[in-house]
Amino acid sequence: MNQAALLFQLQVVDSEIERLQARIAEIDAAIAADQQIAQAEQALADSRKANQQAAHALRAVEENVKSLQIKISTSEANLYGGRIKNPKELQDLQSEISSLKKRLAAIEDEQLTAMVSLEDSEAGEKKASENLTLARGQAASRHAEMLGEKDQAEQKISRLNTERNAHLSSLDPSTLEIYRTLRKQKRGVAVVSAADGACSACGAELRPAELQAARSPQGLAYCSTCGRILYAG
Ligand SMILES: [Zn+2]
């Protein structure tokens, strides 16, 4: 087989490998950019933070309630303990207790609000966690087809690489260099068929001498119009 024919086969393999690699990159990018999972993860992180804040706020209010209750019971013990006899002192104590109780009632309202907020944020976190599980499940089935396709593409690339290595071992290094340079310059098409008497890439009609050169087992022949290697097969 002449070098042009080998190069033509190599080009078929190389083009297929490139196409498959591009598709794998596309699949990887599509999976990485799965917005639904990213959004569900962010929502869960946000709701966890809100839940922690609500729990912290409730603890602070509970501590306030406890310390007021202690103050009230201490003052009441003093009031009814019989140790204080002075009416003015007793009156002051009574009004202190009454104002402490007013504050306690207000703070108990805050406590109730804080408890409701905590319940809401706990429910929110649970919901966000369920949403993330759902999003992951949906993504797995959404991507199952793509992941299967990627797997097949990788297996095919591996088979093509074996084929490619066989071609490479039959080609001269200098011929390969020409092929590689032309492929870069000519958007992946370095070798063209001359079977119909015309260049299959640029369409130029080939002179008999060009066709003759393309058929020769010696050296490479080029399309005089586009510069690609001619393959007579
Ligand atoms: Zn041409």
Characterize the main sheet.
2 strands, parallel
CATH architecture of the largest domain: Orthogonal Bundle
Helix content: over 70%
Strand order of the largest sheet: 1-2
Provide the number of structural domains: 2
Total strands: the figure is 2
What is the quaternary state of this protein? Answer: single chain
Average residue-wise pLDDT: 94
Kindly identify the CATH topology of the largest domain.
Helix Hairpins
- Please report the first level of CATH classification, the CATH class of the largest domain: Mainly Alpha
Q: What is the CA–CA distance across the termini?
A: 10 Å
In short:
With about 230 residues, the chain is mostly helical.
Overview of this structure, please?
The protein contains five helices and two strands, in the order H-H-H-H-E-H-E. Helix 1 runs antiparallel to helix 3 (87-169) and helix 2 packs antiparallel against helix 3 (87-169). It starts with a helix and ends with a strand. It has a two-stranded parallel sheet. The chain has two domains: 1-32 and 172-233, Orthogonal Bundle (Helix Hairpins); 34-143, Orthogonal Bundle (Helix Hairpins). It has 233 residues and is mainly alpha-helical. The chain binds zinc ion. The site of zinc ion (ZN) has 8 residues, from loops.
Task: Please describe the topology of this protein.
Blueprint: H1 3-32, H2 35-80, H3 87-169, H4 173-185, E1 191-193, H5 208-215, E2 229-231
Parallel strand pairs: 1-2
The site of zinc ion has 8 residues, from loops.
